[in-house]
Amino acid sequence: MIRAVAACVLAATLSMAACGGDSGGDSGAGGTTIRLQISGEPEEIAVYRALVGAYEKSHPGSRVRLDAVAKKADHLARLTTSFAAGSPPDVFLVNYREYAQFVARRALSPVGPGLASHGVRTADYYPQPIEAFTYRGVLQCMPQNISSLVVYYNLDLLRRADVPVPKASWTWDDFARTAKTLTRAGGHGVGIEPSLVRAAPFVWGAGGEVVDDTGAPTRLTLDTPQARRALDFLLSLAPAMPGEKEVAAQDLETRFTTGKLAMLLSSRRETPAFREVPGLDFDVAPLPTGAEPAGILHSDGYCVAAKSRRREAAARFIAFAVGHQGQTLTALGGRTVPSLVSVAKSGAFLDSSRPPRSSQVFLDGIPSIRRTPVHPRWPEVEDVVAAELTRVLHDGAPLDQALTRIDERTRPLLADGG
């Protein structure tokens, strides 16, 4: 009964939001219009339209103009341009790995004090994302989620290949064997983008570190024996992964939804789109375990622009979005692993009647979640690593040379703390 009611609430909110959730212009009597900028696929955007619609309904006269940008790179570029022009959105949503650049420009108004006045207690939320969005001792943005990296798998492809469903205790060897078996059965066994956020949990799982000091990094430490072991393992999976030309023709997510890819490493953000694919029977498994369990934090936070003249209205919206009703809506839409503990452990998130049935996997991995540094130049560091790992994976460049170039190119970036 609870699930049925929740589904009806979400459907009604989606319908209502489609009519008015993207409204702009002057606010009604006693209300205020704020601008909210986000990025995501259409299925993700629909969830936020529902959230905006629910907020406007519960706060008569208040309006939120939703500016949706499809690609994250365009989202960040538009933010940078709007700040430079002096007309940023009042509220915007970014990953914890990306907000420090705005703090360095003094472009943010810390959300902590404003949210406290609206009854938001950080003690009610998982500490990992709260800590990640706390910079120089101040809570800069309010996290809405605490996703982690998981393995999505296509149940139909596993059945056809007579491969058992991954167990919570599976190892790197189990993972590699499964990927290779699924590849021999047709298509490709696994998709892993060559990036630092995908490699990091394997480095930690091997007992290594990504940087010399997470709080004040001066260099990457991908050249240690433990980190090299993890990178060598990931590179050994290349025969089971799509090649560069194949990925260029069709991205990993599309290959997964069309049955050409059996397993995909990603966060919770894929769930809304995957749910919309007719006939796609999918579930999730935890990352395989190496020397020790390890996961990587994926968390987005609501930030308020320092130049906003509507900070009180912005705080009111964020308090709703990260509160029980707001987080219940985004959980029902499949987009988030709620940062609010009570909602994360509720049926709104753990409903096994909709895929992925094993959503508990996201919560079980929270104790072993770690994060990368919060640093103004960190997005550029990730770009360097991605470019070099791509050359190794797809062009056959020697790993030793790539690691040397990574070190030479990222040290100056990390030395510039903004």
Task: Report on the architecture of this protein.
- The protein has 20 helices and 14 strands.
- Helix 1 (2-20) crosses helix 2 (42-58) and helix 19 (378-395) runs antiparallel to helix 20 (399-415).
- The model is unreliable at 1-30 (pLDDT under 50).
- The strands form four sheets. It has a five-stranded mixed β-sheet with strand order 2-1-3-13-6. Strands 9-10-8-11 form a four-stranded mixed β-sheet.
- Strand 1 (33-39), helix 2 (42-58) and strand 2 form a beta-alpha-beta unit.
- It has helices spanning 2-20, 42-58, 72-85, 100-104, 112-116, 127-132, 155-160, 172-184, 196-205, 225-236, 244-249, 252-257, 271-275, 311-321, 324-332, 341-344, 347-350, 360-364, 378-395, 399-415; strands at residues 33-39, 63-69, 91-95, 134-135, 138-139, 142-143, 147-148, 150-154, 188-191, 261-266, 282-285, 295-298, 300-304, 369-370.
- It starts with a helix and ends with a helix.
- Helices cover 46% and strands 14% of the residues.
- With 418 residues, it is of the alpha/beta class.
Q: Which stretches of 5+ consecutive residues score pLDDT under 50? A: 1-30
Please list the strands of the largest sheet in the order they lie side by side.
2-1-3-13-6
> In total, how many beta strands?
14
Quaternary: single chain
Question: Terminal Cα separation, in Å?
Answer: 53 Å
